[in-house]
Amino acid sequence: MHIGSLELDNPIILAPMAGITDLPYRLIMKSFGAGLVFTEMISANGLYFNGSTTRELLKTVPAEAPLGVQLFGDQPQRVAEAIKVVEETAQLIDINLGCPVKKVVRSGAGSALMRDPVRIAQLLRAARQATDKPLTIKMRSGWDSENTNYLEIGHIAEQEGVNAVTIHPRTRVQMFGGKADWQHIKDLKQRLSIPVIGSGDIFTAGDVKAIFETSGCDAIMIARGGYGNPWLIRQAIETVFDQPLSSPSPEERFWVAQRHLKLSLEVFGPTKTLGLMRKHLCWYTRGINNAAAFRLKINQSQSIGQMFMLLEEFFINAGR
Ligand SMILES: Cc1cc2nc3c(=O)[nH]c(=O)nc-3n(C[C@H](O)[C@H](O)[C@H](O)COP(=O)(O)O)c2cc1C
Known about the structure:
The structure is a single chain. The protein has helices at 23-31, 44-48, 52-56, 76-86, 102-106, 117-130, 150-159, 182-191, 205-215, 231-240, 250-268, 270-285, 291-300, 304-318; strands at 2-3, 6-7, 12-14, 36-43, 67-72, 92-97, 135-142, 164-171, 196-199, 219-222. Helix content is 47%, strand content 16%. With 320 residues, it is an alpha/beta fold. The chain starts with a strand and ends with a helix. Helix 9 (205-215) packs across helix 10 (231-240), helix 11 (250-268) runs antiparallel to helix 12 and helix 12 packs parallel to helix 14 (304-318). The chain folds into two domains: 2-240, Alpha-Beta Barrel (TIM Barrel); 250-318, Orthogonal Bundle (Non-ribosomal Peptide Synthetase Peptidyl Carrier Protein, Chain A), CATH 1.10.1200.80. The radius of gyration is 20 Å and the shape is globular. The structure holds flavin mononucleotide (FMN).
């Protein structure tokens, strides 16, 4: 499939996730074949004011290409300036219109923009003028159930020259509650001529098949379903290409979890890795015997050496 000038090998995309889709995570997901991977949302204001912490989020390596960089902001000029900063790094630029987090909404960005279609048009016009790279948006269904204006926003995006639209079909008020309404993805697909990407509640290969069939979307994003489970990316690709489904052996789980830990160590160093990797290692061991005991130990681990040891011990025992 194509998004503007960018050709993807397959329609399985790693969703942007704040605090999750850092470089090591993206490399793991890429190694399972993701057609496109995304950074977490990055503050346009942070880039505009030259924040070094914000710029760290742009760290990349050629192996993960194509990379989508997602920006959030509410000031058209600053978003345009931020695009100039990320243009060299990104093969695609996405504008966040869906983040429900209070701090972001209060600043007028993320899902708050869904209440201001005129501002969205201004923002997208400025963004479009700033770059020739593929430009996309990611939105929710609307602010609340009385204001589900995704079709209007989709049309605005198309008119302003955006190359594809992703929808996570929940309202801002829903946050992550209830079920994602895939019918909204279908509505959007039927009305727009640019590609539509579906997101929401994809946890199994069965969900992959169902969301494509229900909505007719062009591509999907894997988000929470990929936690400790990059195999979902591989299975999603197998589903799309009608191939038999593979599943990981315990050895493969161990090797991948260990590789993720090593990558994190290389990219972030030991102190940050200790904080970042606890949750990932717990996710990799979910559903396997003695995972609860492992969780307790890993959450108390005080060194990277101990983390490697606990992981190895867990999987040696799991293999018995
Ligand atoms: C921890 C977390 C962080 C997220 N951060 C972002 C983000 O930075 N930008 C964005 O567009 N969506 C973000 N999302 C939303 C996801 O990209 C996705 O649309 C949503 O989780 C629905 O998919 P799922 O039900 O398969 O998880 C985030 C979701 C989670 C769980």
